[in-house]
Amino acid sequence: MTATQTENAPDLGLTVEVTQALPIPLASSFSCRAGELLALVGPSGSGKTSLLRCIAGLQRPNGGHISCMGQLWFDGITGLHLDPQERRVGMVFQHYALFPHLNALENVTIAMHTRDRALRHDAAMDLLEAVHLTGLERHWPKELSGGQRQRVALARALAREPAVLLLDEPFSAVDQVTRRKLQRELAGLRKRINLPIVLVTHDLQEARTLADRMCLLHRGTTLQTGPPSEVMSHPVSALAARLVDVTNVFTGTIEQHDETAGITEISWGNYRILGPHSPQFEVASPVSWVIPPEYIILHRHGRPSQGKHENPIALVVEESVQLAEVTAITARVDSAGGTHLSFSIPTHVANRAAIAPGLQAQVSLLRAGIHLMPADANVLEP
Q1: Count of CB atoms within 10 A of residue 354's CB?
Q2: Which of 30, 131, 347, 348 is deepest in the core (most CB within 10 A)?
Q3: What are the DSSP E strand ranges found in 219-280?
Q4: Which three-class secondary structure state does DSSP give residue 275?
Q5: Residues contacting 85, CB < 8 A, separation 6+
Q6: 184: left (phi over 0), alpha (psi -120 to 50) or beta
Q7: What b-and-e string marks burial along 202-230, b requiring 16 or more CB atoms within 10 Å of the CB?
């Protein structure tokens, strides 16, 4: 084992733990196995691109370590820092970064400096075929569409025979139709390459669609890592909930726990809300909680809740917006201090219920969807 080899098995993929104070503070850690796609998400300035640059060797953090496929690339204690060309990184940028004086084939071939010259042409043609560019190998970048240029960039990244593939907002410069097509192609391509893939994106739906796991960042710090559905439905904090666009984030107080019934009761204004048993929160302590819109059920007029566990809530509709087959509703809950609840229902249901501003209605907050978090009053201010 060489000095740059770690004791970890190669199939552990990529492991990152970096810290720095400037130019962008970083205190982040995450991992990505071979064959896995990890999405780095967070607001602008959260350090997503800086982390990619650290992995690629383009930026040297103050501390931590970075290893990939069993090889140590950076170690803050020993001072080890491999140059970018030693790291076998394939990187795809937002704006392609193709050489304008080289055609598609040449842009891919130029990245094959470690391969036998006699093999480069055929290998590049195979890569262009893999990204659906057969017949366009002699086209200049200016003759290609945005989607085609990004495919060339992806083929060039793979031409390096990388140990990891880094994608920095790769689809944000193309139109929505092309974006969805490229996403589908990436989903298909990743099944044929056994690499750790790290995707930086602002698009939460893109992360949810493509990623096996999501790493949520804020001001350079990792807040939460897990499957996208888990991060978005069970955020670790009110801040995390806001960053993944969870709209229904509220404060309450723990009233009691009932282990036998599997419930925890919280007070929310004049209501007593029953959620899943969460004994980690002390009785009488403040708590934050969320309810995803899909767990909010509108009652039919004149029909009461099916039971107390449904958490019946009275509200007043303030806004309803028809979005094709669904109608988005924002309603005021007067008995909870006038806070607002957001949810969607099928448009035909909204029409049948005559949903309109000023309508008094009732909903159930399904217990299974209620998720409790540590209190964070600052984040919850309107």
Answers
A1: 10
A2: 131
A3: 221-226, 249-258, 263-268, 271-276
A4: strand
A5: none
A6: alpha
A7: ebbebbbebbebbbbbbebbbbbbeebee
Helix H or strand E segment including 29: strand 26-32
**Dihedral angle over CA of 105, 107, 113, 119, nearest 10:** -10
| SS3 (DSSP) at 345 | strand
Select from 356, 344, 347 the least CA-distant residue to 297.
344
pLDDT score, position 288:
94
Least confident of 128-132, 161-165, 253-257, 301-305: 301-305
Q: Distance between CA atoms of 169 and 226, rounded to whole angstroms?
A: 20
Contact 45, 95 (CB under 8 A): no
Using only C-alpha atoms, what is the Rg of the chain? 25
Q: What local confidence, expressed as pLDDT, does residue 382 receive?
A: 31
Can you read off the two tokens belonging to residue 210? 């493509």
As a whole number of angstroms, the distance between CA 36 and CA 30 comes to 13
Distances (CA, A) of 341 to 287, 294, 337, 369: 18, 12, 12, 14
**CB-based contact 349:326 (threshold 8 Å):** no
CB atoms within 10 A of CB 370: 24
pLDDT at 380: 42
Q: Give SS3 for 301.
A: coil
Structure token digits, residue 345 = 């229902």
What is the spatial distance between Cα 13 and Cα 263, in angstroms, rounded to a whole number?
A: 40
Strand order in the sheet with 197-200: 80-81, 71-75, 63-68, 14-20, 26-32, 221-226, 213-218, 37-41, 197-200, 164-168, 89-92
> Among positive and negative, which fits the CA dihedral 322, 315, 369, 222?
positive
One-letter identity of residue 150? Q
DSSP 305-339: -S-GGG-EEEEEEEEEEEETTEEEEEEEEGGGTTE
Lowest mean pLDDT of 206-220, 259-273, 292-306, name the range: 292-306
More confident residue, 142 or 1: 142
